Amino acid sequence: MKTILLCSDLDRTLIPNGAEDESPPARPLLARLAAHPQLRLVYVSGRDKNLVREAIADFDLPDPEFVIGDVGTTLYHIEGSKWHMNQGWQREIGLDWHGHGHDDITKLLVDMDGIDLELQAPEKQNRYKVSYYTDPSIDSGTIRQQVSDLLDDHDIATHIIWSRDDAEDTGLLDILPRRANKLQAIRFLMADKAFEESNTVFAGDSGNDLDVLVSGLQAILVNNAAEDVRQTAIHRLAEAGHNDRLYLAKGGFRGMNGNYAAGVLEGLAHFFPETADWISPETDNGMTIEC
Fold first, then answer.
1. Are 230 and 221 in contact (CB under 8 A)?
2. Do residues 48 and 123 touch, judged by C-beta distance below 8 A?
3. Alpha carbons 269 and 279: distance in angstroms, whole number
4. Residue 275: which residues within 8 A CB-CB, separation 6 or more?
5. C-beta neighbour count of 250 within 10 angstroms
6. CA 29 to CA 140: how far, in whole Å?
7. CA torsion, ordered 145, 148, 149, 155, to nearest 10 deg
8. Where are the beta strands (DSSP E) in the chain?
9. CB contact at 8 A, 186 and 202
10. Measuring CA to CA, which residue among 98, 86, 83 is closest to residue 51?
11. CA torsion sign, 244 to 250 to 254 to 259?
């Protein structure tokens, strides 16, 4: 019997921390699904290890078997309370930096002309992730190009992400090895654990999930996703001839609205119909989960 590898983003995908309402049965049904012996659960997140742990506890999420964290720079295998770093993935992304690490990058960027960079807290950093605060009004294209050019001169191949934190009124700059992203980390895990594309699915909601959503892997876009992300994904997959690889959750599955975990369950049942039976209503300890 085939085993399914379910890879899912956390914030606003499994975690109901967006503006839309969550269907109350969704997360209990997700926990039932995760307990099935033919499913392997992977959380794919920009969060670091501690923040992923907090999310699992705060939102009563099922424990995963693997976590891809820190914007794709870490890969963990979870066994009980122990998180084991996959050193093979560290070696893989380290090839882009040719022996350089976090401290080497910060030394090179200490005198960036005309740009103020403030290192984020230590828990936001690791050997292959350098994270700064910037002026929120800075031209993102300019800063990405300047950092890239400087590091290219030192044979350091980078993937640079700039975003704005409106709540804190600050810019966020992440510098990563070029191959360190969600898609490549998922593909590495698939190869490492011998999962075929036909048995793998990814679920996401936002622009930082687009690379995976349009990669040709089977993918789910939850119903609460932003409309621009939806349209971009549809357009790019149509150009590639892979329309059938993306499922757009719309609600209605088990009476749920398709937002967050409900959308993940809906999409999973589309690609793998047998999973609908795995979460059939059952009574546990006198309590019934309504679907």
1. yes
2. yes
3. 10
4. 4, 33, 36, 39, 265, 268, 269
5. 11
6. 41
7. -170
8. 4-8, 39-44, 66-69, 74-79, 82-85, 118-119, 130-134, 158-165, 170-177, 200-204, 218-221, 246-248, 283-284, 287-288
9. yes
10. 83
11. positive
Per-position pLDDT tens, the chain of length 291 = 789 999 999 999 999 999 999 999 999 999 999 999 999 999 999 999 999 999 999 999 999 999 999 999 999 999 999 999 999 999 999 999 999 999 999 999 987 877 889 999 999 999 999 999 999 998 889 999 999 999 999 999 999 998 888 888 999 999 999 999 999 999 999 999 999 999 999 999 998 899 999 999 999 999 999 999 999 999 999 999 999 999 999 999 999 999 999 999 999 999 999 999 999 875 343 333 444
The Cβ of residue 80 has, within 10 Å, a number of other Cβ atoms equal to 6
At 181 the three-state DSSP class reads coil
Q: Determine phi and psi for 166, rounding to 5 degrees.
A: -65, -35
Q: Which helix (DSSP H) or strand (DSSP E) does residue 185 occupy? A: helix 182-192
Query: What is the phi-psi region of residue 89: left when phi exceeds 0, alpha when psi lies from -120 to 50, beta otherwise?
Result: alpha
Helix (H) or strand (E) holding 260: none
CB atoms within 10 A of CB 139: 11
Closest Cα to residue 8, out of 275, 278, 265?
265
Spatial distance between the Cα atoms of 213 and 207, rounded to a whole number of angstroms: 9
